[in-house]
Specification:
disordered C terminus; Rossmann fold; two-stranded antiparallel ribbon; 10-stranded mixed beta sheet; alpha/beta; globular; disordered N terminus; 12 strands
């Protein structure tokens, strides 16, 4: 740290004091949670894109939460071709050697009772995302030319095995959750997660911004289907996708939660904006079908949409609600919270989870809704009015 102080000794003391204060703040905010590298996973071939072992961050439960487990999967998009996977390979999205060694938890993983009343003292885990396939890949061969490993499904199983050995095998309550690509993974692995836990455990899954729909784009096609098809093909995902879905339709269709949720047995909670900005950018108006960039301004800032464009955006909301109704909404044990915010991932930050100014639908905050659903305190089926009706929406960066 550079100091403008004249006395160098005082400057060094000042730096040291600031360092101590930073350490205390990190500890107070849960910012010093160390990374756990699952070295034993390598023997199972459960490795990141670059061949390094998988990793997670964990805070042990305490008090009444000692046998309760919240396993959250990090998001971060996908790679559906060799080039994009190589771009991730030498970053934290493809290698545990590039990941931050400590991190903080907040939102649904937060440690403060006041801002996370239902889950603050549970065993809380964030699984790092380094495979680019929503933890679904399983290809045995490794091309010697690119040295890419497609082993997302093995990563998921290896981490879960590690957690089971650390006490999750005795879970009384458990939630599998995730944001974005991790939110999709929470749906795809939901029933399997429950099957690995005690039959007496209360288990649910929470998908935050992971309910990607089989939506029609502005060109009248389904470019997202082609995109998911490339991911499933490259990563060999078909083996790990729910067989209750793949037995009925093409494997890439089973990357769409609306089809998977129809045959899921474990209760699911869907947390998603009706105007999820990732979906508006990549499902409604992907660049592949908008070569002139007509939609660029609108999809990156909903306030800049023309009247005609806003009508298309509202039509997309209708598509989303229909996909919810036919999928997760068709099971009475499921719950959902669909706000009208232009957002993506809302469970990972206190500001959107359970803050005094957090988004609300029918006077209910997200943190309250998820807790009420899991503990059966209330039936949670919250659908917001159309944009721009909700003044409680806040702009917060994704936690993916």
């Amino acid at each position: 740290m550079r100091t403008e102080m004249g006395d160098s000794r005082f400057g060094h003391q000042w730096c040291f004091l600031l360092f101590l204060v930073c350490l205390l703040l990190l500890k107070a905010e849960g910012g010093s949670i160390p990374i756990t590298i699952v070295e034993t996973a390598k023997a199972k071939g459960a490795v990141c894109l670059d061949g390094s072992p998988p990793a997670y961050h964990m805070v042990e439960g305490s008090g009444s939460g000692i046998n309760n487990w919240l396993v959250h999967m990090e998001g971060g998009g996908w790679c559906g071709d060799i080039e994009s996977c190589l771009e991730r390979k030498d970053t934290y999205k493809g290698s545990s050697s590039k990941m931050e060694k400590i991190m903080g938890f907040s939102g649904l993983l937060g440690e403060k009772q006041a801002s996370n009343p239902d889950f603050y003292n549970w065993n809380r885990i964030k699984i790092k995302y380094c495979d680019g396939s929503s933890f679904t890949g399983d290809v045995e061969t490794v091309d010697p030319k690119n040295q890419l490993y497609f082993r997302g499904d093995r990563i998921w199983q290896a981490v879960i095995d590690d957690l089971l050995a650390k006490g999750m095998k005795n879970a009384q309550n458990a939630i599998l959750s995730g944001c974005s690509a991790g939110g999709l993974a929470a749906i795809l692995h939901c029933d399997r997660f429950k099957s690995l836990l005690p039959a007496t455990a209360k288990v649910g899954c929470v998908s935050d911004a992971g309910y990607f729909i089989h939506g029609k784009d502005v060109a009248g096609g389904f470019e997202i289907e082609n995109f998911f098809g490339r991911i499933v093909g490259l990563h060999g995902s078909v083996k790990s996708l729910p067989p209750s879905c793949t037995s009925k339709m093409k494997p890439e269709m089973c990357f769409f939660p609306q089809y998977v949720a129809q045959s899921m047995e474990t209760p699911l909670f869907v947390l998603n904006p009706a105007y999820d900005f990732w979906q508006l950018k990549n499902i409604m108006a992907p660049s592949a079908v908008d070569p002139k960039g007509t939609w660029k301004s609108c999809k990156f800032d909903i306030t800049k949409c023309s009247a005609d464009q806003l009508k298309t955006v509202q039509d997309y909301r209708t598509q989303f609600l229909n996909a919810l109704s036919s999928g997760a909404g068709s099971k009475p044990a499921n719950g959902y919270f669909i706000d009208s915010c232009y957002a993506h991932c809302q469970s990972g930050a206190t500001a959107t989870w359970f803050d005094s100014k957090s988004p609300q639908v029918n006077k209910t905050k997200i943190g309250t809704a998820v807790g009420d659903w899991f503990f059966n305190r209330a039936k949670i089926e919250k659908i917001d009015c159309p944009y721009p009706c909700n003044p409680t929406c806040v702009k917060v960066d994704s936690d993916s």
